[in-house]
C-alpha cells in the first residue's frame, strides 16, 4: 500500500494534470496506455490495483485483530495469582523483588503500591499482587480498529461527494439549483 501511495508522486494523476494530458500520454505508447488507462494508475486512488491492495491490507488487519482479541481480554482480567504464582513471577528477569525493610508490613507495602497507582491485593501471607494500567493492552485493539473508521470515512466522502462547475459572466444570475 505504501509503495502504491508513493506512485502518486511518480505517475501523473488525472486530477492533477487533467484528462487531456493523460490521453496524450496514453496515446504515446503501449506501456503508457496499459499503466495509465488499463491499470487505472492515472486514477490511482480508485484503480483496481490500489483498491485490491487496500482490501488485502484490511483483511489482514481484521485477521490480526481477531487473533489478538481474546489474548488481550485475558491480559486485562488481571486475576491475582496465588502465592506460588507470585513467587514464580518474581523470579522473572523484568521483575523487582526483595525483603521488606524492618518495620514494614505487607499492609504498608500495599499502601505504598497504591500510592504509586497500582491496584494491589494480598495473595498470601508473604505475597502481594499489583497491577498498573491494566487496560493499556486495549490501546492496541482500539488504535488498529480505528483504521476501519478512517476507511469508512474515506468511503463516505468518496461516494457522497458532488462536484459541479458553474460558468457565469458578470451580470448573470445564478439560482443554485441542480438538474441532472
Average predicted local confidence, pLDDT: 84
What low-confidence regions span 5 or more consecutive residues with pLDDT below 50?
none
Backbone shape: elongated
**What structural category do the secondary elements indicate?**
mainly alpha
- Biggest sheet, spatial arrangement of strands: 1-2
Counted beta strands: 2
Encode the helix/strand succession as letters: HHHHHHHEEH
State the major sheet: 2 strands, antiparallel
Spatial gap, N to C terminus:
36 Å
Radius of gyration: 30 Å
Helix content: 55-70%
Tally of alpha and pi helices: 8
How much of the polypeptide forms β-strand, as a percent range? Answer: under 5%
What does this structure look like?
The chain has 180 residues and is mainly alpha-helical. The chain is built from eight helices and two strands. It has helices spanning 2-10, 14-17, 19-27, 30-38, 48-77, 83-90, 106-115, 138-160, and strands spanning 119-122, 128-131. The chain has a two-stranded antiparallel sheet with strand order 1-2. Strand 1 (119-122) and strand 2 (128-131) form a beta hairpin. The radius of gyration is 30 Å and the shape is elongated.
Quick rundown:
The chain has 180 residues and is mostly helical. It is built from 8 helices and 2 strands, in the order H-H-H-H-H-H-H-E-E-H.
Amino acid at each position: 500500500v505504501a509503495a502504491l501511495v508513493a506512485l502518486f508522486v511518480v505517475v501523473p494523476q488525472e486530477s492533477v494534470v487533467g484528462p487531456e494530458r493523460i490521453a496524450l500520454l496514453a496515446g504515446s505508447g503501449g506501456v503508457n496506455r496499459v499503466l495509465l488507462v488499463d491499470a487505472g494508475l492515472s486514477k490511482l486512488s480508485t484503480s483496481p490495483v490500489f483498491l485490491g491492495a487496500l482490501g488485502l491490507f484490511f483483511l489482514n488487519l481484521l485477521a490480526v485483530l481477531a487473533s489478538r482479541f481474546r489474548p488481550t481480554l485475558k491480559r486485562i482480567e488481571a486475576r491475582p495469582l496465588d502465592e506460588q504464582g507470585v513467587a514464580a513471577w518474581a523470579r522473572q528477569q523484568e521483575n523487582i523483588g526483595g525483603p521488606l525493610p524492618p518495620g514494614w508490613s505487607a499492609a504498608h507495602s500495599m499502601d505504598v503500591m497504591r500510592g504509586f497507582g497500582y491496584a494491589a491485593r494480598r495473595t498470601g501471607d508473604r505475597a502481594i499482587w499489583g497491577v498498573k494500567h491494566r487496560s493499556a493492552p486495549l490501546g492496541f485493539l482500539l488504535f488498529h480498529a480505528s483504521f476501519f473508521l478512517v476507511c469508512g470515512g474515506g468511503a463516505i466522502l468518496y461516494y457522497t461527494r458532488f462536484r459541479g462547475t458553474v460558468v457565469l459572466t458578470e451580470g448573470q444570475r445564478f439560482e443554485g439549483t441542480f438538474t441532472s
